[in-house]
Design brief:
By secondary structure, this protein is of the alpha+beta class. The chain has two domains: 105 residues, Roll (SH3 type barrels); 296 residues, Alpha-Beta Complex (Fumarylacetoacetate hydrolase, domain 2). The protein is 21% helix and 25% strand. Strands 6, 7, 8, 13, 14, 16, 17 and 22 form an eight-stranded mixed beta sheet that branches. It has a five-stranded antiparallel beta sheet with strand order 4-3-2-1-5. A five-stranded mixed beta sheet has the order 9-26-25-20-21, with no helix packed on it. The longest helix has 15 residues. Pathway: Amino-acid degradation; L-phenylalanine degradation; acetoacetate and fumarate from L-phenylalanine: step 6/6. Its EC number is 3.7.1.2.
């Protein structure tokens, strides 16, 4: 049954009262950046709300409110810890409940509502955290297997270490952009003839531009240099989650990745959704992930079975002709490693993580046709065209194509109590005519 609210929350909204996600917005007719939460088709500007003593009734938090929400990023609020996140989320939710004592703070104050409650379509969203470091993992076992088969064969698809530790690489934080930001087609070195000897690359725009369907987590607690985070601690060190598209230049990657892995083929753009879904909002949707049959090192052994998240994920491709085709439907539970395991492994050497660091899951793919989280898998490395609406086809992304990723929990429980992420969207722009 839907939670009753005095504010109209449209049926099917990702931002029901079961959610209350946090982000950074610019209010209408302003360039300032303010913290906010999304509720239905509206956003509550927390910077203005806090300045108007909106948190006075939450005495335990009121002293932190202005510092937490007057800044252009959410790092200060995140660093207060999950107990505070939980309390503030509950308080904000209560203000929109029909019969809550806190409802009158906004419901009966038209002047305050006019100053801090805006239509979602009227605000601009921004990257919500100051991201110092970004690590991309490779926890999608179906994706890893599919790609391994393409390039190494079924008998050697996964490397021997794959099921023993969360494989990852350090990405580029400076090119993480918010949903809606155009993505420029990159240039790079490409080996056009693999049989040539000596091997000579060509420098040209990427011809095999791809998307990667991922989930990502923000860190909310720093650990000192030399002090690993245990798996139990890691649960509390995660602030919340966003959708992520880690765009990939496949032809550039094929030439550059030996021996140290991807570099320019991955550093040109990574798109994230604007609203951080708090870890507590996703607690009801914990589930089992992919089974790992390997004997794990003790530091990676979870204390519970439901380490994954039951999030329905979808990828749509829209062409310049306006034809929109759903090309991927899968679920976030298709991961071999949980985010707490990723975080724990990241710090096991004593590596210090900081508030705002971002951890990507790696490409999430199912095991059936239409559930693969990249074009590379779907077109079998460019050998089988993907059929789109309007009698169009694709091998890889063309200029003007738009990729839209959506994710939502609770679709079976009712369309008015969804916990969703909104969308993670990017449109491909043509490569620069000259690079120098």
């Amino acid at each position: 049954m839907a939670t009753p609210s005095w504010l109209d929350v449209p049926e099917g909204s990702h931002f029901s009262l079961a959610n209350i996600p946090f982000g950074i917005i610019s209010p209408p007719d302003s360039t300032e950046r303010h913290a906010a939460v999304a509720v239905g088709s509206h956003v509550l500007d927390l910077a203005i709300f806090s300045a108007e003593n909106g948190f006075a009734a939450l005495e335990s938090f009121s002293a932190h409110a202005n510092n937490a929400f007057s800044l252009p990023v959410l790092n200060y609020f995140a660093a207060l810890g999950r107990a505070v996140h939980r309390e503030v989320r509950s308080y904000l939710r209560s203000m929109f409940l029909q019969d809550s004592p806190h409802a009158q703070i906004l419901k009966n104050n038209e002047s305050l509502r006019r100053r801090c409650l805006f239509r979602l379509d009227d605000v601009r969203t921004h990257v919500p955290m100051s991201i110092g470091d970004y690590t991309d993992f490779y926890a999608g076992a179906n994706h890893a297997y599919n790609v391994g088969v393409l390039f190494r064969g079924a008998n050697n698809a996964l490397q021997p270490n794959y099921t023993h530790l969360p494989v990852g690489y350090h990405g580029r934080a400076s090119s993480i952009v918010i949903s809606g930001t155009p993505v420029r087609r990159p240039w790079g070195q490409v080996l056009q003839n693999a049989a040539s000897d000596p091997k000579e690359p060509t420098f040209r725009p990427c011809a095999k531009l791809d998307f990667e369907l991922e989930l990502a987590a923000f860190v909310c607690t720093a650990n000192p240099l030399g002090q690993p985070v245990t798996l139990a601690q890691a649960e509390e060190n995660i602030f919340g989650y966003v959708l992520m598209n880690d765009w990939s230049a496949r032809d550039v990657q094929a030439w550059e990745y030996v021996p140290l892995g991807p570099f320019g083929s991955k550093n040109f753009a990574t798109t994230i959704s604007p609203w951080i879904i708090l870890a507590d909002a996703l607690e009801p949707f914990r589930t089992k992930g992919l089974e790992n049959k390997s004997r794990l090192s003790p530091y990676l052994v979870p204390s519970r079975a439901d380490t994954a998240l039951d999030i329905d994920l979808q990828v749509d491709l829209t062409t310049t002709a306006g034809h929109r085709t759903t090309i991927t439907c899968t679920n976030a539970k298709n991961l071999l490693w949980s985010f707490p395991q990723m975080l724990t492994h990241h710090t096991i050497t004593g590596c210090p993580l900081n508030v705002g660091d971002l951890l990507g899951s790696g490409t999430i793919s199912g095991s059936t046709p239409g559930s693969q989280g990249s074009l590379l898998e779907q077109n079998r490395n460019g050998t089988a065209a993907i059929e789109l609406r309007g009698e169009e086809q694709r091998l890889f992304l063309q200029d003007g194509d738009t990729i839209t990723i959506t994710g939502c929990c609770g679709t079976s429980a009712g369309s008015r109590d969804l916990v969703g992420f909104g969308s993670c969207r990017g449109t491909i722009e043509a490569a620069l005519l000259k690079t120098h």
